Amino acid sequence: MASPIVFVTGTDTDIGKTFTSALLAQKWKANYWKPVQTGLDSDPGDTKTVAGFCKDRKHMPHFFNPRYSLQKPLCPLDAMHFEPEYDIKLSDFSVPEELADQPLIIEGAGGIYVPITKKLEITTHLIKRLQETTQRPIKIVVVARSGLGTLNHTLLTLEHLNRAGLKDRVAGCILNGPKNPQNSATLKAFGASILAEVDHCDSESDITAAIAEIPDLATLFQ
């Protein structure tokens, strides 16, 4: 039986998508795929980061290779300017067919409106493209900061997804950082579903608590 897919996006860059993806992979015993990786001239890449996190833990995901790996720490569109041999197209992407009986975490590049192609297609278009290539159900998890600034960024992200016709695909938000009950309550008042609130993790016990905070995968697809 085919297992579900969760696409992890964020309200900004460096918002905690990769750390959250690693937590989700552990919680749900899921595999991992980063379709487009940038910034390799200054960073080992998110696939290696998730692999390092999962090493010596209960679950080691299968890692699907990025379809594109670019050097500059820029959005895919701008990173291509420095490597003109690349011309990313949405048609280049399809959900990996291997291990379809296991859950899959797909991590986007930056936020939902990050431009990916020279046609100015964005992460939203990529999600729609991936859904066209598979019969597996896909849900979207939005990673947002917990503190100041999160209300505007998070609500705009959710509004964009709604306007793009993806409202039913949005499972909810994971707030990353020191817990802020007021921000969480305000987001809920605007209709946002808060799946988990993950504080900074400085120890193994913190990581265990963060994983326990994440709901079971089945609840996202009810």
TrEMBL record:
InterPro entries: DTB_synth_BioD, P-loop_NTPase. PANTHER family: DETHIOBIOTIN SYNTHETASE. SUPFAM superfamilies: P-loop containing nucleoside triphosphate hydrolases. GO terms for molecular function: ATP binding; dethiobiotin synthase activity; magnesium ion binding. Pfam families: AAA_26. It comes from the Eukaryota. The lineage of its organism: Eukaryota, Fungi, Dikarya, Ascomycota, Saccharomycotina. This is LALA0S01e18778g1_1. One of its GO terms (biological process) is biotin biosynthetic process.
